[in-house]
Amino acid sequence: LVGYILAFVAKASFLFEIRDLWSQTMAANGFIKNPFLLHLNRELESFLYRYSSKIIVLSPAFTEEIDRQVPGSRAKVAYIPNGADLEFYEYPNLWRGSYFGKTSSQNISSQTISSNEAPVKPSIDKRSQETQSELSQSYFNVIYAGVFSDYTRLEVLLEAANRLQAQYPDIRLHLAGGGYQLNKLKNMSADMNLSNIKFWDA
Fold this sequence. Notes:
Layout: H1 2-10, E1 15-18, H2 22-28, H3 35-51, E2 54-57, H4 61-69, E3 77-79, H5 86-89, H6 126-135, E4 140-147, H7 155-167, E5 171-178, H8 182-191, E6 197-201
Parallel strand pairs: 1-2, 2-3, 4-5, 5-6
């Protein structure tokens, strides 16, 4: 809302970036149960959708909901996903452990290497060595990176890990991030005696 006001005063374009459909998220998770507050929040969303110059979404699925909420909005929606430039990092087969130890052009380098120069191998600090040790085993590594909170429902991953560890011992789950649910999830993992899950504090 502040961004809209500043754009209006400055007579500038208002670009509205949507990182989550908060009205639906808050309603689905019970964070806001008051119907009036939910309606007020949805009306504010609709107002910002309607008067934005461009709507930037992180998921193409958001486009349908935004257009349903404010018909005609689809034309000004731009899909710009989060994530890394995989061609820049070039981590081929990291989960199988085939990256570490290579000295080829597959190694990460932010510089252009000429044909007369040796490839630059990235330095590996203590934290990276720990990561190498965890990910270079013959496991299928599944990684979650993000916030540990109520709305991410990471207890589901712990339940999945509990079911997987006996039948599929070669699958490892890695949870990287932080949040107020971190200690709760660690305690749950300990209580469930999960050996196939690893927490990485942010």
